[in-house]
């Protein structure tokens, strides 16, 4: 019976994938996010590309039958018009540096490539001879485009002018601990309190206002989100302001099923070699498998800051999922670690823990929701308002009313939002089919569960080991899982000794994709 179910599920999944691929192929494209285009003798920065490398990349696109397309072409293909050419590419240049005109624009004209440039309104408003506050660093206004250059690029018919916001390309104070986080998705913490929903939406509307059309004669229809960060509320405000098209920094291809508000883009970093550029466009590698641990601040000694030692262990172990508990128990009462009026609050530090875990240890955080919260969407919304996280772990089935209620409550304030469904047994075929892109199922790593999961779902399931088992036994079973094609697994805890027997099996530092 188990074999019959696995075979049936595999057939249904293959059929659905084939139908979807046929429908989406006419509108499939990849978007590339460039920033500075520097001279060959300039010092490289993380988001820069050398002018000579950009010329080689453009030539490579031409020779290898890749086709840069305009936003108009993409929208027409999505609306049933002419299909996009095979291997369609959308070129974008963020931040409005002058080298978009002096170095990129001549190449765009030479190759007849369309592109999008994204301007930060407040930076453009800085008078000549003064300094632009570029993410806290003073940069001369002369390093950015002027309006005459923008108008010339727009008049060429090759370049569309997008908004990079008026003043969201900055960090704002996000918590009592002093972390600054992206302005588009963060609740401003000032004078000991957070802005409420009304103040947050009013600030977004103000900072997304149009300051471009008075110089170009055309209001932008595209919002290029600073740092790639947005959420449902910000996307709604942008659409209301005439910008229904949103560009993010989520990797991957776009097709007809990708919402217009959240087109994906691949960030071009460190002036990649031609080989690296080609591999990126051809996607010749598999993404890193999920490797998880659990972090419970409630186990930290009272009065002691265990965050730094925890971050050190995470940095060494290098998982890519940390399931973090959002509560602690004090005097027999469960209390939250974030602001809410719906529960007792022990301390406002979960956002600090989550942000430091992401930024210092490089590990995305999934909040491990208590079962009692699953029918309290407003509590989940409070969590999403005040805490930066990548996903939520919940004991509910994919596609269930409970899961979709939680997705809706959190998704207004957190995007992209992944759900990790912690189940005791593998999902039914209908539940597997209800998994949305990016979601996964977390199962106890029992022999019965492993045998019941179809091999085709290996990338959608993560097996979790009981940390009370002998470490040597856990390591052996992880190795066997990987050999059988199930490469996503974790431990329901944080190993005390990161250099113990589990480390080589669990750590992504031992994966061939990483240096």
Describe this structure in words.
The chain is an alpha/beta fold and 515 residues long. The chain folds into two domains: 27-282, TIM Barrel; 291-510, Alpha-Beta Barrel (TIM Barrel), CATH 3.20.20. The chain contains 18 helices and 26 strands. Strands 17-18-21-22-23-24-25-26 form an eight-stranded parallel beta barrel. Strands 1, 4, 5, 6, 9 and 16 form a six-stranded parallel sheet that branches. Strand 24 (440-444), helix 16 (447-452) and strand 25 form a beta-alpha-beta unit. The two termini are 44 Å apart. Residues 1-23 have low confidence and may be disordered.
What's the architecture of the largest domain in CATH terms? Alpha-Beta Barrel
Work out the strand percent. 15-25%
The CATH class assignment of the largest domain is Alpha Beta
The strands making up the biggest β-sheet line up spatially as 17-18-21-22-23-24-25-26
Number of domains: 2
Helix content: 25-40%
- Given as residue ranges, the uncertain stretches (5+ residues, pLDDT < 50) are 1-23
Radius of gyration: 24 Å
- Number of distinct beta strands: 26
CATH fold category name of the largest domain = TIM Barrel
Shape by Cα distribution: globular
Number of helices: 18
**Mean pLDDT value:** 92
Classify the secondary structure makeup into a structural class.
alpha/beta
Relevant CATH superfamily of the largest domain: Glycoside hydrolase/deacetylase
The description of the largest β-sheet is: 8 strands, parallel, barrel
How far is the first residue's CA from the last residue's CA?
A: 44 Å
